[in-house]
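Budget justification note: compute hours in this period were largely spent on complex prediction jobs such as the one shown. Inputs:
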Amino acid sequence: MVESILSYGLAMGAVYALMAVTYNVMFSTSRVFSFTAGALGMLGGVFGALFIGRLGLPSGVGFLLTLGCCALIGVVTEFVAVRPVLKSLDQHLYVLSTLALTLMIQQFTAIEWSTVPQPFPRVLPFDLFVRERFWMPVLACAVVVGGMEFLYRHSMVGRAFLAIAEDNFAARALGLPERGLRIGSYALAGMIGGLAGFTSGGILLAFFANVPTLNFYGFVPVALGGIGNNRGAVVAGLALGLFQQAANYLVGGVFASVAIFSVFIVALLAAPQGLFGAAPARRV
Amino acid sequence: MTISRRRVLAGSAAVLATPMLASRAQAAEPIRFGWLTALTGANSAPGIGFNRGVQYAAEKINAAGGIRGRKIEVVTRDTQGDPAKAVNAAVEMASSLKVHATFGPTNSGESLATTPILARFKVPSLQVVQLDSLIDPVKYPNAFRFAPNNTQWDDANRHYILDILKAKKVAVLGDNTGYGTTATAASVAGFKKAGADVVYTAVVDANAQDVTPNLLRAREAGAEAIAVWSDSTGLDARLMNTRGRLGWKVPFSGHPSMGSGDVRRLLEKPEYWDEVYLIGYRSCSYDKSGRLPARTEAFIKEVHGKVKLSDTVLYWVLSAVDAVHLVAEAVDKTGSSDEEAIIGYWNKLSGWPGLYGDYTFTTERHNGYPTSEVVMSLANSERDGAFTLAPGYR
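Corresponding output:
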C-alpha cells in the first residue's frame, strides 16, 4: 500500500505541479489564467502516442515533436484567446475565451484522435528501479523547476519575464519587448504542459477527456502554493498527489475527491493568499 | 345547363377514374422511415454500425420492388449525440416530414428527450436503448423496444455469476457516470434479492488512474466474482491490468465494453483479458465449434462484400435490418402506413423471427426482446463483431 501511495502519489503530484507551473508561466506575462493548460497536458499525451505509437518515430524525435507542437498551441492560445481580451482584463473575459479554445481543442481531438483512451507507448527500453511511468513525471518536474529557477534568477529573459509580471507598463516604458516576451512565455508554457502530458502518458493514457482532470487538479497547487509561486506549486502539487492517493486507499472511490476538495477549501480559508503566497499589498 | 349524353358519359368516366387515380397516388407514396442517430461526433460508432443495417435492408426491399409497390424512403437525421439536435430532428420528422415510423435515437440521453415528442405525435417508434423507463405502453403507446433493457442485462449477468460460475460472494464495481451509478445500484439490489452475499461495492471515477485500492478491498472481502458496470474502456482496462498485476484470478462479468478492441490495446499483457465475460446475444454468439446460429450465418453470407462487419458490432447491424423489416412488414400485412395500423400490427407480434432475436409485443408489453437470448460471451473472442459464448451455456 505504501509503495503504491508513494509511486502513484508522487507521479501524479509531479504532474499537478507541472500543470501549476504551466498556469503560472502564462500568468506571469499576461495576468491571465489560461484554462488551455489542461488541453496542453492532454495534447502532450496524444501527440506522444501519435508520433511514437502510431507513426513509429524514435522516442527522442517524438518527444521533441510533441514539445514543438505544444509550444505552437501555446502561441496560438496567446494570439486567439488571450491577446484579444488583454485590454479588458478586469472583465475577466479570458475565462470565456480560454475555456472556449480548450473546448474546441478537446472536441477536435475527440473527433480526429479517438473518443476512448489510447495506449501510450514505452519511451525507454529500461526502468530505473520503478517503472518509467512513475519516475518520468517526477524527473520532468525537477528539471522544469530547476530550469525555471535558473531562467528567472540567472538570465536576462527570465528577469524580463519577472519585470513584466511585476509591472507591465513600467517594463514597456523601459523598452522591454512585452509582446514578444508574452508570446515566448506561452510557447514555454505549451512545452511544460506538453511535458506533463507526455511523461504521464503511461498513467493517464492518450485521452481527450483528461482535460478537466488536469485543469482542475492543476489549479489546486496554484491556489495553495500562491499565484505565480513555482516553488509553492511544486510543494503543493506533490502534497496533493500523495494526499489524493492516500485518500483513495483510506476512504476510496469518489469520496477521495471529496476529501481533497474539503482540505483545499479549509486550506484556502486559513490562508486565502495560498500557503506559500505573500499577502497582497493594499494601495492606500 | 342542358344535360347531353356526352356530358353524362364524361362525368361518369371522371367519377370512375377518381378512386383509381387516388389509389395510384397512394401506391406511389413512399414509406418514410425516420432514422435518428449520431453519425458524426464523439459517440458515432454505434450509429455508423446501425446505419449499415438500415441502408442495406431498405435498398434490398426497394430493389425487390418495395412494399405493395411503395419504396422505403430512409429519412436520416444526424443527431451528433446531442439531445437538442435529436429533439429538433424528431419534431421535424413528426410534423413536417410526416414519417410513417421512426427508429432511434440510439443513445439514452437523446431517446429520453425524443420519446415524449414522438408519443405526442403518435409516431410508431422502434427503440434499442437499454434505459428501462423509456418503454411504458401507457405513457408511450407508440414506442416499442426490440432490444434488452438494463434489467434483462442485469438478470443475465447475475444468472451467469451465481448459477454458472457458482460464486457465493460477489463484488460490484461501476463508474461514477449516471449509467454506472444506476446500473451498480440495480445490480447490488438484484444480487441481494437473489440471496447472494455482496461483499464489496464501489462507484469508481471513470478516469481513475489507480484502481488497486478497490481490487484489494474486494479481495480482502473475499469476492469470488466481480460484476463490472462501466462503459469506460479505460477503466475496464485498468481493472484488468490491476487484477493481472495482483495475480488475482477472479472473474469479471458485466458490461459489453469489456470486449472492445480499445480494451485490448490498453492491456499490459494479453492474458489479462482471460476470465472476462460480457453481455452478448445468442444470435451473435459463436458456439463451441465456432459457428453462429443458422439465421445469422445466412445473413453474413448474404451481405459478404456488401456490408462491412469487421469494424463494427454485429448486433448493431442485425437489429437495424430488423427495424426496417418490422416497419415494412407492418405496412405489407395491414395494407396501410397509418400509425394505428402499424402500432396495432406490432402489438400482436408473437415470436417474430428477426435476425437479432424473436420479438413479442402485446398492448401491455412493449419490451419485445426475450431474456433467454441475452447470454454472456468471452470478452477476448471478438471476430467480425461477434463473440464466443461463455463456458457453461448449452
